[in-house]
Design goal:
43% helix; 321 residues; 5-stranded mixed sheet; alpha/beta; single chain
């Protein structure tokens, strides 16, 4: 048997209590278990450490020698744990681990955070197409915050207890198509105008396919659907082989048209999550900078800016930080 710090704590507890009965109660164990553990410690050291008497127990000369060495070790270990936890807390104050699904606001958000957070803050970004995966990472402590989107009609699987801030209650999803697509001639597109097109959707994005299928079914449309990531989709869209939902903040391209859908049948909710606990002020700052960055991205996208104006969105009046 090798002695460990917990064994030294047992010896000190017995010496401080003056009896095995009292020591066992303080340690939250039964007296027979404590007696057995003491015997094992004494066997490992090769001598009796306590004299058992009717009124209790007291250290033997060997016991006093062991205790004189054990107490400083225990105090040193307690100090080490305290100092290490304090160091970790200080490091956490200078670290921000961000998780995010794809967004045009990311670049501006990171730029703003680097300007506003204390010097030396370690800022990291983890991207994932799955919002549910990011939320599990926040819950497990692997991420500090997660910026995610929730497809309308397809609730996310949010771990219990996470704190949430809503960035945008309902962001319309636009449609990307070839520049020479007949429907691109209109400023707003009807779903019926795309009934004969192939639609592309990324099935790895939580809720994406279910949300699109719900909308198409409600419109009485059953077009062919291709499953692929959106990087692949872009190469097919520009040559007229497919159309696909896209974020309204998507930037302009010479070879692609981006248009809103009439009555905005497709939408997502934009959310920021964190675990509850210290850091509420930092979370408020992170949220404020994300909102400002999103507003910048929204106003740069001409079609979305016009949509915001038509719908008198409060986003237009959000002051930039």
């Amino acid at each position: 048997m090798e002695l460990e710090v917990r064994h030294l704590r047992v010896l000190c507890a017995i010496a401080d209590a003056g009896s095995l009965h009292k020591a066992a109660r303080r340690l939250g164990m039964s007296q027979p278990s404590l007696t057995t553990q003491l015997r094992r410690i004494e066997n490992a050291l090769g001598g009796e450490l306590f004299l058992r008497e009717r009124t209790g127990c007291r250290p033997t000369p060997l016991g006093r020698a062991v205790l004189s060495r054990a107490r400083p070790l225990i105090a040193g270990m307690s100090a080490l744990v305290t100092e290490t936890r304090a160091a970790v807390a200080r490091a956490d104050d200078r670290r921000l681990r961000i998780g995010s699904t794809a967004s045009r606001a990311l670049a501006g958000w990171l730029r703003r955070l680097r300007q506003r957070l204390p010097d030396g803050t370690d800022l990291s970004l983890h991207m994932n197409v799955s919002a549910n995966t990011l939320l599990r990472m926040v819950d497990a402590g692997h991420l500090d915050v997660a910026f995610v989107h929730e497809v309308e009609g397809c609730p996310l699987l949010v771990p219990e207890g996470l704190e949430r801030r809503v960035l945008v209650e309902r962001e319309p999803q636009f449609i990307s198509m070839a520049r020479d697509h007949p429907a691109a001639a209109a400023p707003v597109v009807d779903l019926a105008d795309l009934a004969e097109d192939r639609w592309m959707v990324d099935p790895t994005v939580d809720g994406e396919w279910d949300g699109l299928r719900r909308v198409l079914t409600a419109a009485g449309i059953d077009p062919p659907v291709l499953h692929a990531d959106y990087h692949t989709a872009a190469s097919l869209i520009v040559v007229g082989e497919a159309v696909a939902p896209c974020q309204p903040t998507s930037g302009p391209r010479e070879d692609m048209a981006i248009r809103p859908l009439r009555d905005d049948p497709l939408a997502v909710r934009l959310l920021l999550y964190r675990r509850p606990g210290p850091g509420a002020e930092t979370f408020a700052l992170v949220y404020a900078e994300l909102l400002a960055a999103y507003r910048e991205a929204a106003l740069r996208a001409a079609a979305y800016r016009q949509w915001l104006l038509r719908n008198k969105s409060p986003l237009l009046h959000t002051p930039a930080a």
